[in-house]
């Protein structure tokens, strides 16, 4: 522990963001990278407590006190090695993770917690800037071939681990570029896609094969998959969106959040979308239904598209602004969270249920709602449904494989991540349901351990 009194000397430095009036005009990252000397100061606040609950709260089991100490000492390369030992995509979690670890930080009991997420981001970006991170293909191959279906965080983490074990890994992605939700579900103002591409280039140089624009089970038949590959990991995510079954749902102007965000990301990437298919908030009164992170991303996107106004509603009551006795430390609390998109404008409402949609000549014009027993209406030209997902798509692949589903419609597995079909495993949202990116990475790593064990009878990969 570099400075046992660091947490008494240094106050928490909160994240810095670009000016609101400037950033709403483009899709460049909102958050600003912190100076390295500031990260060193912030790392000194880590108390190296006897029982590190931050480690307990992290789904990938990050060695947080250890790499904070190395960071404080200026040993960036060693800190990077420890960080990379448990996390395949720290440049992603360092930008997008809700930092469950920070809510479990011991210092957070009576002070502001350590800036764990920003410290993580500083370490990984220093690693890239210092050229510490280079492709390291395995020295020996096992002769085993594995198909990973889906290139989101679970699929990428699983493939990376199995490739390190020396297996031949092929990732199948039905979209034209790899990344899954990271590429098409997260706006560029939160995750510049050059960050994702940087990591994918490394994976390719290390020997992982990517087959994009390839829908496993259709373009690449299930029988062929089973014949060519020794094991399959289903990591296609949870893509079946939750819908609202109310009057007027068929009116033009109502879209699912992922359709809206995916198209926006394609446009930002320079792709052309036919005019008749464009979903634009420009000069429109926008209503986002759903108060989660995806809803907030839709709010920020609508601001950048030039919406006339944005309202976001949530069916649940407004969360408390601080912990309550129902959610004590070190649990991750259900508290009010204001994103950078909310800071840019718009109105938020809670305890709002959607009763019906109304329009003229087939186009949406109003939404009738109720809150606490009172009815009211909201004028809207565009409604975005951001109310989560039900389960994975039960498409040709899952049906052809004959895998079992649980009561929620997710792929059922045992504790070893194996499905009801021998040699077929599953990980991420497809298995556990809609969850956090860091949990997807954890799932990918755990499934990789079990797949390696299945193929080789034992595994040198970490279980977590």
Summarize this structure as a short list of keywords or feature phrases.
464 residues; alpha/beta; Fumarate Reductase Iron-sulfur Protein, Chain B, domain 2; FAD/NAD(P)-binding domain; 5-stranded parallel sheet; 19 helices
Termini gap = 25 Å
CATH fold group of the largest domain: FAD/NAD(P)-binding domain
Q: Approximately how much helix is present in the residues?
A: 25-40%
Strand order of the largest sheet: 5-4-3-8-19
CATH superfamily grouping of the largest domain: FAD/NAD(P)-binding domain
Mean pLDDT comes to 97
Proportion of strand residues: 15-25%
CATH architecture of the largest domain: 3-Layer(bba) Sandwich
Class by helix and strand content? alpha/beta
Query: For the record, what CATH class of the largest domain applies?
Result: Alpha Beta
Low-confidence stretches: none
Described by the principal axes of the CA atoms, the overall outline is globular
Count of distinct strands = 19
Rounded to the nearest angstrom, the radius of gyration is 23 Å
Largest sheet: 5 strands, parallel
* Total domain units: 3
**What is the helix tally?**
19
